[in-house]
Write a structure and sequence with these properties.
43% helix; elongated; mainly alpha; 113 residues
Length: 113
Protein backbone atom coordinates (compact mmCIF):
# COMPACT_ATOMS: atom_id res chain seq x y z
CA UNK A 1 0.00 0.00 0.00
CA UNK A 2 1.17 3.52 -0.80
CA UNK A 3 0.77 6.70 1.22
CA UNK A 4 -1.72 7.89 -1.39
CA UNK A 5 -4.10 5.09 -0.41
CA UNK A 6 -4.27 6.48 3.16
CA UNK A 7 -4.60 10.18 2.37
CA UNK A 8 -7.67 12.20 3.32
CA UNK A 9 -9.83 13.79 0.62
CA UNK A 10 -8.33 17.18 1.60
CA UNK A 11 -4.78 15.85 1.18
CA UNK A 12 -5.71 14.32 -2.17
CA UNK A 13 -7.27 17.60 -3.37
CA UNK A 14 -4.15 19.54 -2.33
CA UNK A 15 -1.96 17.04 -4.19
CA UNK A 16 -4.11 17.36 -7.31
CA UNK A 17 -3.99 21.17 -7.11
CA UNK A 18 -0.18 20.97 -7.02
CA UNK A 19 -0.28 18.71 -10.08
CA UNK A 20 1.36 15.94 -8.04
CA UNK A 21 -0.34 12.97 -9.68
CA UNK A 22 0.01 10.69 -12.65
CA UNK A 23 -2.64 8.93 -14.70
CA UNK A 24 -1.69 5.50 -15.95
CA UNK A 25 -2.07 4.96 -19.70
CA UNK A 26 -4.16 1.93 -18.72
CA UNK A 27 -6.52 3.98 -16.52
CA UNK A 28 -10.23 3.69 -17.18
CA UNK A 29 -11.74 7.18 -17.05
CA UNK A 30 -15.40 7.19 -16.07
CA UNK A 31 -17.95 9.94 -16.39
CA UNK A 32 -19.42 11.27 -13.14
CA UNK A 33 -22.64 9.37 -13.88
CA UNK A 34 -20.74 6.07 -13.72
CA UNK A 35 -19.57 6.58 -10.12
CA UNK A 36 -21.65 4.88 -7.48
CA UNK A 37 -22.11 5.90 -3.87
CA UNK A 38 -19.72 3.94 -1.68
CA UNK A 39 -17.25 3.32 -4.51
CA UNK A 40 -13.88 3.03 -2.68
CA UNK A 41 -12.12 4.68 -5.64
CA UNK A 42 -14.30 7.77 -5.37
CA UNK A 43 -14.56 9.23 -1.88
CA UNK A 44 -15.57 12.84 -2.59
CA UNK A 45 -18.83 14.06 -1.13
CA UNK A 46 -21.49 16.30 -2.72
CA UNK A 47 -19.81 19.51 -1.49
CA UNK A 48 -16.49 18.36 -2.95
CA UNK A 49 -18.14 17.59 -6.28
CA UNK A 50 -19.83 20.99 -6.37
CA UNK A 51 -16.49 22.72 -5.77
CA UNK A 52 -14.77 20.64 -8.45
CA UNK A 53 -17.53 21.51 -10.94
CA UNK A 54 -17.14 25.20 -10.06
CA UNK A 55 -13.37 25.11 -10.57
CA UNK A 56 -13.34 22.88 -13.63
CA UNK A 57 -12.94 24.53 -16.98
CA UNK A 58 -13.10 22.31 -20.03
CA UNK A 59 -10.42 22.38 -22.67
CA UNK A 60 -7.08 24.11 -22.68
CA UNK A 61 -6.09 26.88 -20.28
CA UNK A 62 -7.20 30.32 -21.40
CA UNK A 63 -4.77 32.79 -22.92
CA UNK A 64 -7.01 35.69 -21.86
CA UNK A 65 -7.84 36.93 -18.39
CA UNK A 66 -7.09 35.20 -15.08
CA UNK A 67 -6.09 31.54 -15.21
CA UNK A 68 -9.04 29.32 -15.94
CA UNK A 69 -11.37 32.19 -16.81
CA UNK A 70 -12.16 33.91 -20.06
CA UNK A 71 -12.18 32.91 -23.67
CA UNK A 72 -9.27 32.41 -26.06
CA UNK A 73 -10.42 32.90 -29.66
CA UNK A 74 -9.10 30.35 -32.10
CA UNK A 75 -7.93 31.17 -35.63
CA UNK A 76 -6.85 28.81 -38.37
CA UNK A 77 -4.34 29.61 -41.08
CA UNK A 78 -3.13 27.70 -44.10
CA UNK A 79 0.62 27.54 -44.62
CA UNK A 80 2.80 26.54 -47.52
CA UNK A 81 4.75 23.32 -47.03
CA UNK A 82 7.96 25.37 -46.83
CA UNK A 83 6.59 27.79 -44.21
CA UNK A 84 5.21 24.91 -42.15
CA UNK A 85 8.58 23.13 -42.23
CA UNK A 86 10.38 26.33 -41.18
CA UNK A 87 7.88 26.82 -38.34
CA UNK A 88 8.34 23.23 -37.17
CA UNK A 89 12.15 23.60 -37.20
CA UNK A 90 12.01 26.91 -35.32
CA UNK A 91 9.61 25.54 -32.68
CA UNK A 92 11.80 22.48 -32.14
CA UNK A 93 14.98 24.57 -31.92
CA UNK A 94 13.35 26.84 -29.30
CA UNK A 95 11.65 23.96 -27.42
CA UNK A 96 8.30 25.68 -27.92
CA UNK A 97 5.07 24.73 -29.61
CA UNK A 98 4.30 25.97 -33.11
CA UNK A 99 1.37 27.90 -31.61
CA UNK A 100 3.68 29.74 -29.21
CA UNK A 101 6.04 30.68 -32.05
CA UNK A 102 3.13 31.90 -34.21
CA UNK A 103 1.61 33.94 -31.35
CA UNK A 104 4.97 35.60 -30.59
CA UNK A 105 5.57 36.40 -34.28
CA UNK A 106 2.07 37.85 -34.70
CA UNK A 107 2.41 39.97 -31.54
CA UNK A 108 5.76 41.32 -32.76
CA UNK A 109 4.33 42.07 -36.22
CA UNK A 110 1.27 43.87 -34.84
CA UNK A 111 3.31 45.91 -32.35
CA UNK A 112 5.55 47.08 -35.20
CA UNK A 113 2.56 48.33 -37.24
Amino acid sequence: MTNQQHETPEERAARYERGDFEISPDALIQSRDEFREGDPDFELGPADLAELRRLRTPGRPTLSGPAGLGRSPKRQVRLSVELDAALTRRAAAEHRSASEVMRAALEKYLQAS
